[in-house]
From TrEMBL:
<dbReference type="InterPro" id="IPR036565">
    <property type="entry name" value="Mur-like_cat_sf"/>
</dbReference>
<feature type="domain" description="Mur ligase central">
    <location>
        <begin position="162"/>
        <end position="374"/>
    </location>
</feature>
<dbReference type="InterPro" id="IPR004101">
    <property type="entry name" value="Mur_ligase_C"/>
</dbReference>
<dbReference type="Pfam" id="PF02875">
    <property type="entry name" value="Mur_ligase_C"/>
</dbReference>
<dbReference type="Pfam" id="PF08245">
    <property type="entry name" value="Mur_ligase_M"/>
</dbReference>
<dbReference type="InterPro" id="IPR013221">
    <property type="entry name" value="Mur_ligase_cen"/>
</dbReference>
<feature type="domain" description="Mur ligase C-terminal">
    <location>
        <begin position="399"/>
        <end position="528"/>
    </location>
</feature>
<protein>
    <recommendedName>
        <fullName>Cyanophycin synthetase</fullName>
    </recommendedName>
</protein>
<dbReference type="InterPro" id="IPR036615">
    <property type="entry name" value="Mur_ligase_C_dom_sf"/>
</dbReference>
Amino acid sequence: MSTSLVELRVLDGANLYFSRAAIKLTLDLTTLIDAPAPAAKAYAQALGLGATRPGRIGSGFRQRFAVRVVGHIVRRIAREAGIGRIGVRVRSETDVHRLVVAFPWAHEGRARALGQAIVEVVDAFGTEELPELVASVGDRVRNEPAGDAPPTLRPKIPVVAVTGTNGKTTTSRMIAHIGRAAGLHVGWSSTDGVYFDGELVKYGDFSGPSGAGQVLSQPGVQLAVTETARGGILRRGVGVAYNDVSVVTNVTADHLGLGGIDTVDQLAEVKAVITKITRPRGWCVVNGDDPRTFAMRLDSPAKCWVFSRDPDSPSIRSVLDEGGRATTVLDGFITVLDQSSDAEPLLKVVDVPMTLSGLSHYNVENALAAASAALGLGLPRAAVIEGLSTFSPAENNPGRMNMYSVRDFTVVIDLAHNEAGLEALLEIMNGVRQPGGRLLLALGSPGDRADDMVSAMGAIGARGADRVVIGHKGDYLRGRPPEELDAVFREGAGSVGVDDVPSFPTELEAAQALVREAKAGDVVAVMSLQDRASLDAWLRSEGATVDNPETLKAKVERAQH
């Protein structure tokens, strides 16, 4: 027997639909969407919905009609099961035949039973005994064993949750580093693993709810910093019931077309989840230069702490007028603004190694965000200054803007996993290129990125660099043949007049080919997700040295002059 159920997912914590645990059903309603209007109307009336206008078969109006019908089904069954009031969210998807329905849960067994009952009533379209069926499944839900409560953690130590499209790993690492400068035992989770006081405890992608659990379980931990990615929120929800500070770095196109998230606005909705569970006495730290991110403060119970590179930004004026705080760049200093006191300079931007003497705009913003979060936690000003000034790209931020000197040219290893990240990488490459030097770039992408994003990266890379090759990420192709990715990258490069784009099986082989071509003053960059460790080992075997903050500063100054 065919069923309308596409997926029943148990979300253990705050999610896109509710600020607490919820059941999410994805339903294929082809039978209802494509039914003749009289049959659709009769189904709704049998459920007790009253006057309805189903609209044309397969239309947006019919989908909206289905939204109303499904919401009514949930409430009818809940009533029959003795559940007095229940929150229900029903959302349409891009495919007109699909809907998502979600409702909060307190006991998993009964909640799953309610989900299955909803599916059973939806599947009964066209049958005559609908009222009897609703009563029957409601009675079954009522008598189902309650089951376990949500495993959402209620932390007893301060928690900072960090999300965003770009910069969340760097920002969370900076905050953790500042926490350690303040003398705290700090645990943090990220896409690279779980760390405690700078030591790797568990390797892997822990940017989901399990990462929060791993961090909070570390003996003696005094501060938790959790990187919170889109995927974890969609698949299981946020792992903690609340945080003390939430940070949103930015929202740009990434992972679109996955998990029902098709637009940047929908992606922003997902990222905003962490701001909605920030404690009222805490701080919601948002990017004032990104309208979608800045708007998140409106739905947060916490006070707003905005960051912007522009001290005259309207976002800063708005937040200060609302009684919040701001961190910006004033006369070259990272500076805190508060309506009730004088501007407070912390340290010069050029003294923050991650900013490359202020060249890397993204990392200036990451530093502003980290300073805001640390001060929002109540960490001392001196610790913020020490943390930012001692945070080294190579030592403290592996895989993000790591620079090497190889003979008389520069090599950069950076994640740069989307268009905005690639633009930022090119900005850095240009900033350290010596007069007459060239930019040599190894492009790459996981296999699950949409074609338009891969093509756009091909165009951006070919336009911005003097030489472009492709280096594949074999462990992240996710079933997609590398030849397919080659064709899409080359299509993008061809759109800006670049036809010579060789392909290599790995990031390492692509880097080796470019290093062989490099001449004095050139900059070689690799978009690296998979081969970071082997790239580092090979470069060192070739006599490369890691650039320290002084070397980086000297390279920027030479390039500028």
